[in-house]
Amino acid sequence: APVAAPDLDLCEKATVTSKSAGTTKVACCPPKSANIIDFKPPKFSKIRYRPAAHMVDPEYLDKFTKAMELMKALPMEDPRSFMQQANVHCAYCNGGYDNGSPNQELQVHFSWLFYPFHRLYLYFYERILGKLIDDPNFAMPFWNWDAPRGMVIPEIYVDPDSPLYDEKRNVNHQPPKMLDLDYAGKEEELSKRDLIKSNLTVMYRQMVPNSTASLFHGKPYRAGEKPSPGMGSIENNPHTAIHRWVGDDREKYKEDMGNFYSAGKDPLFYAHHCNVDRLWNIWKSLPGKKRRDFTDTDWLDSSFLFYDENANLVRAKVRDCLDTRVLGYDYQKVNIPWLKNKP
Ligand code: C2O
Question: Least buried of 6, 155, 192, 247, by fewest C-beta within 10 Å?
């Protein structure tokens, strides 16, 4: 059976663990709501294009900054506030919910739920930001880390006076330090040029040969089953590598980006995940062999709960999010340099 949307009444404190710091409990359950609305595809007049974060113009940056400022200014109890939105990730990823039985935790990583969960999460986040600045066409930026010019933390996120800034990041990985898409905790000694080459090779390797749904998305995961059956290629690397690379190694749990419970407290998280989301679109349109999503109804009918821009609680299914153009958005077209980087 499909994974059912969690029962918010059963939400419990989440568990945070690290090898060195042990285990701790964190409260991150969302506010409750008596009503749940089923998701309906939005009406819109034009597609919004999510721009590459390193290419945005000052006018866009103003809007985005304003929206984030307003989100951070919402009262803590508002489900659309910055903290509550960050907590969405915590509750779904650190065992706040159960998967149909009290002793089986729900986990949206390490399985075929990874892409759809994050797509819907970002979708509602973007709608909230758009509503706050009264611009329904507002689209969030993506961190274009699969292209050489995007392989540093985008400048717009590193101004300490900006609401896009987060102080809990690795101090040695600020621009112009180049990202290592294979990062596993050790600093890469390669020259910049060799690192770019290595990163493009990682991208090719994770995107192109992984042509089946289960290699790309991750393994099937159904109601009542044990969490984390196996992750897809991109989730593994570079997705996880980038979380670890950004996270602050002075912090106990590598906050913010280095742990699920805190990752959503870094505004960069959403740009990172927009790129992951963009890669799902790109994967389906790669030349050659046709790549297809799962057709299993246990996947298609799995569902999640999110608060929308009007603070209504919405139940959305995987099948609702397969086509970003139905959701009203797409990505700015930029070069895809790794396509030619066959190792
Ligand atoms: Cu839900 Cu990048 O993790």
Answer: 192
State the distance from the centre of ligand 1 to the C-alpha of 235, rounded, in angstroms: 8
Let me know if residue 2 belongs to a domain.
Answer: no
Q: Please name which of 271, 219, 228, 269 lies closest in space to residue 246, comparing C-alpha atoms.
A: 269
Report if residue 58 sits inside a domain.
Answer: yes
- Does residue 3 form part of some domain? no
Any residues with Cβ below 6 Å from ligand 1, and which? 89, 93, 109, 118, 239, 243, 263, 273
Task: Tell me the CA–centroid distance for residue 144 and ligand 1, in Å.
Answer: 16
Residue 1 lies in a domain: no
Ligand 1 atom with the shortest distance to the CA of 89: 1
276: domain CATH number is 1.10.1280.10
The domain of 128 spans 8-340
Nearest atom of ligand 1 to the alpha carbon of 121: 1
pLDDT in tens, 140-176: 999 999 999 999 999 999 999 999 999 999 999 999 9
pTM check: above 0.90:
yes
Please list, in sequence order, all residues whose beta carbon lies within 8 angstroms of the beta carbon of residue 90, skipping any fewer than 6 positions away: 14, 26, 28, 96, 260, 261, 262, 264
Amino acid at 295: T
Average of pLDDT values for 304-328?
98
The protein residue whose alpha carbon is closest to atom 3 in ligand 1 is: 260
Domain count, the chain: 1
Query: Is position 272 annotated as part of the catalytic site?
Result: no
- Residue 47 is predicted with a pLDDT of 98
For the beta carbon of residue 290, count every other beta carbon within 10 angstroms. Answer: 9
Specify the length of the chain in residues.
343
ipTM value = 0.99
